[in-house]
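Note on ligand handling. Small-molecule inputs were canonicalized before submission; formal charges were left as drawn, and no protonation-state enumeration was performed. Where a ligand contained multiple stereocentres, the stereochemistry in the source SMILES was retained. For zinc ion, this procedure yielded the string shown in the input block below.
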Amino acid sequence: MASHEFLLPYPDLSVERAGNTGVDGVWHFDSGVPGRNVMISALVHGNELCGAWAIKDALALGLRPRRGTLTLVFANLGAFDTFDPAQHDKSRFLDQDMNRVWSADKLADPNTRERQRAVALRPFVEKADWLLDLHSMHEPCAPLLLTGMQPRNLELAREMGAPRHVIVDAGHKDGVRMRDFGRFGELEENGTRSLLIECGFHGALESRDVARDQVARFVKASGIVDDGDFPADWFMPLPAEQLAIQVTDAVVARSMDFTFSQDWQGLEELEKAGTVIGWSDGEPVVTPYDNCTLVMPSLRQLLPGVTVVRLARRVA
Ligand SMILES: [Zn+2]
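Structure output:
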């Protein structure tokens, strides 16, 4: 069983939080040469430290664009300031989830601290052509790169070559994520790219390595830096293959009588349709198609109506 122990240190941002734009936590570098406007964000959730480390490391490296511009954002510093490793979920946000407020109606009514912060960040998000948003997860899990439904983002994920698991996902019903805001949410090719990387468990040391790897691959692919501008140790080994999957189904518990047939860890790919993955009210729950992948199985919050696992199929 992977560890829930919180090993990743809390980064000291006392210098970095000033930024250089007049907006707290926002750094902007302009090469003065034509090229893409690239933005990397961290701490959209205050307890997701790996991205803050990666941006701190990029600043320490003196990373600058050779073409276009580079914007580095520590998003929810207010929530980050309340961080306590013993209760890290409590510093996810102050008033509301900052990754559900990215629509014109909510930003026009900034009645929470997260909306107010989003209003301050909005000009930078709107100016960005390429956006990489750095996150981490509640449970120990391999890294997941989320592309949304835009084929152009899946294409970029494949060009980056890592991580192994890429998820094509439709976002959330309860609010728009930053990576789906404005031009980023349009389905047709418009020159933008936006990806969200879940780097692993919040407290895992390796999540920082994943965040740095993704920053290096994304910025390199954007063309605003040259090969060699990132030290070789920013790149993790490439996976043997990438698996792009699309979530098709959510398995919802009907009652408290739900058990799994094995201690699934997530991301298992089950070869045959009809494989029993668990029992709901005594009836078998089976995979609906061949090569079905289990995404985030968990009985930790089992209640009637709660999703206990999602099912995903390979994207050709
Ligand atoms: Zn997050």
